[in-house]
Amino acid sequence: MKKIFVVFPLLALLIVSMLASPVLAAEAKKDPLANWATKFDFSKAEYTYILSNISHPVIQGVANGYNFRDSLWEKSNGRIYVDYRPLAQLGGEKDVISKLKLGAVQGMLSSSVASANIADKLGIVNLPYVVDTYDKLDQFRGDPALWGPYSNSAQSAGLMVADIVNYGQYGWATTTPVRNLDDAKTVNFRIAEAPVNIDVYNAWGAKFTVMPWPDVPQALQTGVINGLDHTAIVCNITKKFTIAKYFTELNYAQGLFVHLVNKKWFNKLPADLQKVFIEVLEEESAKTRALTRVQHDEQIAKAKEAGVEFISLSAADKAQLIEDAKPVYASWGEKIGMDYLNTVRSTLK
To answer: Is 242 exposed, middle or buried, given 0-12, 13-18 or 19+ CB atoms closer than 10 A?
Structure first.
C-alpha cells in the first residue's frame, strides 16, 4: 500500500511537469491563427472595429480581413484597429448577423448565401449563371448601375454593404463521377442553409440535404451525403477531396464574402477616417479578388496532382440548368426587383 501511495504522487508530479513544459504545451494546443498575429501595439487605438468571419484565412477571401487590418492601421496612422475574428470565433453566421445589427459586432465578412437573409436583393449573386465568372464579378462590382442597388439594399437593417470578395466558383465535389445531369440524379448533395440555394436545387430536381458546414466532414465519411455544393478552392484546402475524388465544374456562381458594416458605428467615425476606411477596404478587396483567381488555379492544380478528376459539364447540360431555373428567376425577380435582375443579366452576358 505504501508503494501505491508513493507512485500516485510521482505520477501526478510527472503530469504537472509535462503540462508545464512550454514545448509540450505548444504541441498540445497550436494556435491555428499564429501566422496572422498582430505585429503592432493597438492598445491606444481610438476606434476598434470587430470583424467576424466563419472560415480560415488560408483562403484568400478570408485573409482579406487581416490584410485590411494591417493596411487600415498604417493608413489611419494607428487610429483604427480591426479586431478580426475568423474561424467562427463569434459564433455562426445567423448569430453574428444579429449581433451586427445590434452593434455588438461592427463588421462581418458574411457568406453571400447567409447575407440573402438580410435583404432579398443580396440573393442576386447566388442565382445560377448570373454573376458566375471572375470577369462578371469584377464587372458587377465596378458598374455603379449594378453595384449601387446591391450595396444599398441592407440600409433598412442598419447595415452597409461596403465591398465584396470571393473564394472561387461553385461546382459539385462527389464520391462518384458526375459527367451529366443523369449522373447528378444519383447524388445527395449538401447545400448551404440559404433560401436561394434551396429554391434552385428544387427547380433542378436534385436530391439535396441542407446541412451546416461543420457537419459536412462526418456526413461525407459516413455516406449521409455523397456530394457537396461548393468551390474547388474550399474543397481542396479543407480536405474534402480526400473523400470526394471528383469535381464537376458547373461554375454556376461565385462563392462570395460580403463585407457588411454597422452604419451607426461607421457614422460615428470622423469624416477623414470614414474616407480612409472605405478607400482601404476597396483597395484590399480588389487585391483579394485578383489573388483569388490565382488561388483558384493553384488549388485545382494541387487537387489534380493528388488524383482528383475535374469534369466539365456540357453546354447542353448547362443550358438545361438555366432552363430549369426559370421559375427561380421569376420568383426571386419579384423579390429582388425584376427590372434590376434583368439589367444585371443583360449587362453581364
So the answer is: middle
